[in-house]
Amino acid sequence: MNVIVNVIFAVQMLAALVMIGLILIQHGKGADMGAAFGSGSSGSLFGASGSANFLSRTTAVLASVFLASTLALAYFGHARLAGSGSVLEAPAAAAAQPADAASAATAPPATPASGAAQIPTK
């Protein structure tokens, strides 16, 4: 099961990085208007209209892969902690044990018994 989680995590990271690259390559909607008035060139690698279709469809597919891998990782993460009941309870239970040990180590010394003589302080 650990191998499956690692493969899904690798797919998620790869989809995220490629999706970031594709989004940065795409032109905004206002880029064509600037090219129409002579402020830039409208040439692109995939042609005038083909680039928008190819890049936007590839981005949509990668977004779907990213969403599916995120849901799969959440499912497998919850399946690992099925005995604890909640994802949030497991870290809280693990953090409570060292806190109790630390508070016992720094606890103030016990007060003397009621019959013992106490030294007054000024």
Describe the model.
- This protein is mainly α and 122 residues long.
- It has a domain at 1-28 and 49-79.
- It is built from four helices and no strands.
- Helix 1 runs antiparallel to helix 3.
- It is elongated, with a radius of gyration of 30 Å.
Which SSEs are present, and which pair or pack?
Elements: H1 2-25, H2 31-36, H3 50-80, H4 89-105
Helix pairs in contact: 1-3
Task: Record keyword descriptors for this entry.
single chain, 122 residues, mainly alpha, 4 helices
Instruction: Give the proportion of residues in helices.
Output: 55-70%
β-strand number? 0
Class by SSE composition: mainly alpha
Helix segment tally:
4
Report the uncertain regions: none
Main sheet makeup = none
The amount of beta strand, in percent, is under 5%
The whole-angstrom Rg is 30 Å
What multimeric state do the chains show?
single chain
Distance, first to last CA? 67 Å
Taken in chain order, the helices and strands follow as HHHH
* pLDDT averaged residue by residue: 75
